[in-house]
Amino acid sequence: MASARPYPRPSRRALLLGAGAGAAVLTTPGLAGTASARGSEVDTVVEWYDVTAATIGVITGPLQVNSSRTWAIGWIAAWRAVTRARGGAAADAALAGAVHETLTTLAPARAADLDEALAATLDRLGPAAAVRAAVESGRDAARDVLAERAGDGLDLASVNQPFTPPPAAPGVWQPTPPGYAAAVQAGQGDGRPFLIEDVPAYLPGPPPALDSGRYARDLAESRAVGAAQSTSRSERQTDVARFWAQTSLNGYTGALRAAVAGSVGGTARRVALVALFHAATVDAQIVTYAAKYRDLRWRPVTAIRTGDIAPDPEWTPLITTPAHPEYPSGHTTYAGAAEVVLRSLAGPPAGPVQLASPTAAGVTLTYRDWRELTRDNIDARVWSGIHFRHTDEVGAAVGRLVAAAGLARWDGRPL
Fold first, then answer.
1. CA 242 → CA 231, 254, 344, 384, 392, distances in Å?
2. Which of 192, 196, 328, 353 has the fewest other C-beta atoms within 10 Å?
3. Residue 66 is part of which domain span?
4. Cα 389 to Cα 84: distance, rounded to the nearest angstrom
5. Which segment of the chain is annotated as a signal peptide (predicted)?
6. Do 270 and 49 touch, CB atoms closer than 8 A?
């Protein structure tokens, strides 16, 4: 794996985003009534953040990078448009125009709801000519970014291209029970990143050898604590595992919202935070899948059922194993990248951040530092029985490295 580097020193642009984040509970509002208040005024940034989240909705893994791409395109366009506006209502209108144009293009089935949301924003901002011109500037920015990203290999067909697994062999990935589903996201590693240029430079080294002590320790841990009927996994560990069974994009939507809503920065600063978060996590997802389909490492369920070390044909993980190779962990790579962006550009949370999950009804987790989310993702994938610990730790390191490099490269150039 490429050697770890410290987080990038905050640049002039990064310092513009250095406000702390506030506490928030993740919700997924409908498009109507999404406006959030800062004092007595509607916060247009949070308003359109919620519109974007509602448009994307709750997604499954095979849809994640494409959905992250939609976020990135919309908010990069918004950042360009907002930085050309003169602040105030014009900046808000530019933001709304850019995100609206992106979402109606990429999610046309939601056009009526999106039109309603835009009308509500414009009714609030008023009929001034500068406002209407800013909306058109936002739309133009969205069209430009959409054109730039055309053919980037992150459409659903390219990401989920067919894949034929190699013959079964020790350590080699095979479709997993109970459904033995075909591999997904096999083409994701070929996508074009937003911020980094050389994907192979960020690929990790190979996973531990099957005869290594590290592999034996990790296998024993996953076997013991990740089993569906484990007696060594606590109730809290089970809750964390089920909580983070959701996609990373869904899991972090509330965390990023807390950072955006709690920021004291202006519109451009807060829009850039959203744009860079999604650009960096898309890049991390591309690197993850390039490595997954290079190494084709088997999952714990295959290793435990068919491997040479105390095979147990009946062993079953707590969480159903995703249909793609094991190394590195996509959840922890995403978490590592998200951590770097939030720590570098938003600063620490100003208060506790409470999050909920569609995969763990009734469970609320509270976080006071962005690193805690990474920690829980590392643990959760082991406690779920779907990853080895080394895989999770490497994933987090790769995500941090990719995001740090992306932020450093962004400094001094337009998105």
1. 16, 17, 29, 7, 16
2. 192
3. 21-410
4. 46
5. 1-32
6. no
**pLDDT > 90: percent of the chain:** 86
pLDDT value of residue 36: 52
Residue 283's pLDDT is: 98
- Helix (H) or strand (E) holding 38, with range, is strand 36-38
Q: Which of 128, 84, 126, 99 is nearest to 34 (CA)?
A: 99
Q: Specify the pairing of strand 364-367 against strand 353-356.
A: antiparallel
For residue 228, the model assigns a pLDDT of 98
Of the candidates 383, 67, 125, which has an alpha carbon nearest to the alpha carbon of residue 252? Answer: 67
> Tokens in use for 213?
């002590």
According to the model, what pLDDT value does residue 413 have? 61
Residue 196 domain-assigned (yes or no): yes
**CA-closest candidate to residue 285, choices 247, 237, 235:** 247
Residue 20: what pLDDT?
27
In a domain, 16, yes or no: no
In the three-class reduction of DSSP (H, G, I as helix; E, B as strand; rest coil), residue 320 is classed as coil
Q: What is the pTM of this model?
A: 0.91
Both tokens of residue 286?
Answer: 């591309």
Report whether 17 contacts 272 (CB < 8 A). yes
Q: Looking up tokens 């506006």, which residue turns up? A: 85
Copy the structure tokens of residue 49.
């953040």
Residue 179 burial (C-beta neighbours within 10 Å; 0-12, 13-18, 19+): exposed
Whether 414 shows a pLDDT value over 80: the answer reads no
Please give the full DSSP string across 40-59, using - where no structure is assigned.
TEEEHHHHHHHHHHHHH-S-
**Number of domains within the chain:** 1
β-bridge mates for residue 364, sequence order? 356
The domain spanning residue 308 has which CATH number?
Answer: 1.10.606.20
Does residue 352 lie in a domain region? yes
Largest CA distance in the chain: 74
The closest of 271, 279, 280, 323 to 301, measured between CA atoms, is 323
Which residues, 6+ apart, have CB-to-CB distance to 141 below 8 Å? 77, 78, 80, 81, 84, 94, 98
Q: Exposed, middle or buried, 44 (CB in 10 Å: 0-12/13-18/19+)?
A: buried
